[in-house]
Amino acid sequence: MQQTQITQLEKDKQLLAVDAMLKGQEEERSRLAKDLHDGLGGMLSGVKLSFVNMKENMIMDAPSVQSFEASILQLDNTIAELRKVAHNLMPEALVKFGLKNAILDFCNSMQLPSKTKIIFEEMGTDRQLSNTADLYIYRIIQELINNAIKHAQPDQILLQLTKAEKNILITVENDGKGFDVTILKNAKGIGMKSVQQRVDYFAGKMDISSDKENGTSINIELNT
């Protein structure tokens, strides 16, 4: 009995450490998002306004006008990309509209530039989770979708989120390039490690199967 209690205390201690680390990461993300959006984003918007005002007071030939407008367009694209980065760091949709709508918003934002079709299906009960659970689940999905698009280059991704009475099931499947799962286990990248940390937070489990010809399937079970 004493050994069981010691083991449980060690698990609780590890869970508290993981929770503190993940919360620290989210606080840093929030700070960076605010700095990017309000600080650098505001500065770039000010530069654009100065350029527009400058153009109205300048006489330029046709090639110069074309070059000037191309520069403004590039600045617009930079501002848009900056806002996208800030949004991914701290998704406002999650706070304002909940997990389902935040996931839909994220999937839509990823489809356009990548040309990958993302199918999102939500099933099970409509029970509400804690804000922390919603955020960590969102981060897991965000990382898995990003990884699939970046490394597998699939035509289609299927994302399923199932809410059962006592657990959450996440399935992400793609039809892109597969890989050797044993290599992933030994990889040093922070992306999948952050996913595993969040899975561990829920005392959950993750199963990955992949085939070079048939894509990849990742199944996660979280105890909530």
Question: Topology of this protein?
Answer:
Elements: H1 2-56, H2 62-89, H3 92-97, H4 99-114, E1 117-124, H5 131-152, E2 156-163, E3 167-174, H6 181-185, H7 190-201, E4 205-211, E5 215-223
Parallel strand pairs: 1-2
Antiparallel strand pairs: 2-3, 3-5, 4-5
Helix pairs in contact: 1-2, 1-7, 4-5, 5-7
Overall pLDDT confidence? 83
Overall CATH architecture of the largest domain: 2-Layer Sandwich
Straight-line distance between termini: 26 Å
Number of domains: 2
> How many H/I helical runs?
7
* Class from helix and strand fractions: alpha+beta
Instruction: Output the CATH class name of the largest domain.
Output: Alpha Beta
* CATH homologous superfamily descriptor of the largest domain: Histidine kinase-like ATPase, C-terminal domain
Name the helix and strand elements from N-terminus to C-terminus, one letter apiece: HHHHEHEEHHEE
Strands ordered across the widest β-sheet: 1-2-3-5-4
Strand composition percent: 15-25%
Q: Biggest sheet: strands, sense, closure?
A: 5 strands, mixed
In the CATH scheme, what's the topology name of the largest domain?
Heat Shock Protein 90
Strands, count: 5
* Mass-distribution shape: elongated
Helix content: 55-70%
From the alpha-carbon coordinates, what is the Rg to the nearest angstrom? 22 Å
Q: Stretches where pLDDT falls below 50 for ≥5 residues?
A: none
